[in-house]
Specification:
Length: 192
């Protein structure tokens, strides 16, 4: 016959004694590790929020300053070929027969264009520079924003396509410098 084991209260307490739960010291060490981990994660979260806010601010400014240039160009006459668009107020240069400005490139032939939006190759007369706050600067050494524009005529030369690109000199952090490109159509007024 088999011997049956009877468990009594003493044998249960003895069995539990060797398998006891966490001690207070173990609990404190686990809490310390948890607090250190959460602190590191909160630090990353805070840095990420600050980076996103500053990069978003730059992207918003890029759009605002590009829109301002677009409005300046849209205010010009369709056939203007003499206003200096690199200054504010874009005004005809020279005396009675203004020269030196680009305006909207006058009468462009079908599919013709002038200016450019390549940040590596700014076209004189189709670029201006702004400081961080959006104020025009004369020296190219002091700029934070570079605004460039290009005027194109469509195939019938009745519509001009105006493209304005605003590029930041640098960005905060490791992301690429923000830029905005806007495109607008300006039609020739009916002369009949």
């Amino acid at each position: 016959m088999k011997k049956e084991k009877h468990m009594n209260a003493n044998s249960i307490l003895q069995a539990r004694g060797s398998q006891s739960g966490f001690t207070l010291v173990e609990t404190m060490i686990a809490m310390l590790v948890l607090v250190i981990g959460l602190t590191a994660v909160l630090g990353l979260f805070t840095a990420g929020m600050a980076y996103n806010q500053s990069h978003g601010d730059l992207a918003s400014r890029a759009t605002t300053y590009a829109q301002t240039k677009m409005e300046e160009l849209n205010a010009l006459n369709y056939v203007d070929n003499s206003s200096d668009t690199t200054v504010w107020l874009p005004a005809p240069t020279g005396g009675p027969a203004p020269t030196g400005g680009t305006g909207l490139c006058g009468f462009l032939a079908a599919n013709g264009d002038c200016g450019g939006t390549d940040p590596a190759a700014p076209v004189n007369g189709f670029v201006d520079y702004l400081d961080f706050q959006g104020t025009r600067v004369a020296s190219t050494a002091d700029w934070f924003w570079m605004r460039q524009w290009r005027i194109q005529a469509n195939s019938t030369a009745n519509i001009k396509i105006i493209t304005v690109r605003n590029t930041a000199r640098r960005s905060f952090g490791t992301a690429a410098a923000p830029f905005t490109a806007l495109v607008n159509f300006k039609s020739r007024p009916n002369t009949t």
